[in-house]
Amino acid sequence: MHYPALALALLFTIVSQPFAVAAEPAPQSPPPLQSPPPSEPLPTPEFGVYFKSKGDKVSPIPTFEAIKDQLPEPVLDAQPDWVRMYWRCWEIGFKKIQQPPASSLLVSTYIDAAFGKVTGYTYQWDTCFMMMFARYAHFQFPLIHSLDNFYARQLRSGFMCREIDGKPRIATYGHQGGYKDPAGWKNTINPPLFAWAECESFKVTGDKSRFALVLPVLEKYVEFLNRDGDPEADPKDWQAQGRRSVGTPHRLYWNTDLGSGMDDTP
């Protein structure tokens, strides 16, 4: 977990058919191989089947200076340093708002936790935590749509990866790095905070219509998490592995230190 995101939150409470050569006197070259017809597309990852929105790419992105006087203002006359820190956090936050490129699979403008400009990735837990303060600027800039990028990358199984970018892939990072670590699938799930972020946002926005949009996504996510899962399963079978501990008396959820968000644990 990236601490700048948590600090900000705490301030407020991804045919050919065999051909036959005609028997002719002279040798004849075979016909060229044909690509599959349009009605038979090659398989591609199926993303966002439960999210019925095209997202919200807002332009232009407002600046902190332009809307500062519309943000909540703390009354802390005895703590001027706290007030300066408060406004500085908002300033940093607005500098982190990113617009996905036109070719990106990210569907909405989003607030970036830390490394978006460097790696292109955005992070599930960090984004949920940032909603705890970003909701107070909703009527100036609706950053709750940052979560739409994860919903639009949900797989049919209900799985949602803890980090995504704008490309059609699943980030299965291992503990020692490596984008396609064979065991990296174990680290792809964060403890589910989406519903908490959505409910806290609603307390400010009063927008019930968003629940109708996100509930199908979150219900399928919970369904996935509640499946039996074995961390020692064949990596090829990773999508069938939920987070209920199979073969244990306690039937609690399992995770890894990286997946749990506690990657700084000694």
Tally the helices: what do you get? 8
Outline, from the CA principal axes?
A: globular
Task: Provide the β-strand percentage band.
Answer: under 5%
Uncertain residue ranges: 3-27, 29-44
**Coarse structural class:** mainly alpha
Please tell me how large the radius of gyration is.
Answer: 23 Å
Order of helices and strands: HHHEEHEHHEHHEE
| Major pleated sheet | 2 strands, antiparallel
Mean pLDDT: 80
Oligomeric form of this entry?
single chain
The end-to-end span amounts to: 14 Å
- Total DSSP E strands: 6
Helix content: 25-40%
Widest sheet: strand ordering? 1-2
Task: Give a quick rundown of the structure.
By secondary structure, this protein is mostly helical. The protein is built from 8 helices and 6 strands; from the N terminus they run H-H-H-E-E-H-E-H-H-E-H-H-E-E.
Could you characterize what this model shows?
The chain is 29% helix and 5% strand. With 266 residues, it is mainly alpha-helical. The protein has a two-stranded antiparallel ribbon with strand order 1-2. Strands 3-4 form a two-stranded antiparallel sheet. A two-stranded parallel sheet has the order 5-6. Mean pLDDT is 80; it is low at 3-27 and 29-44.
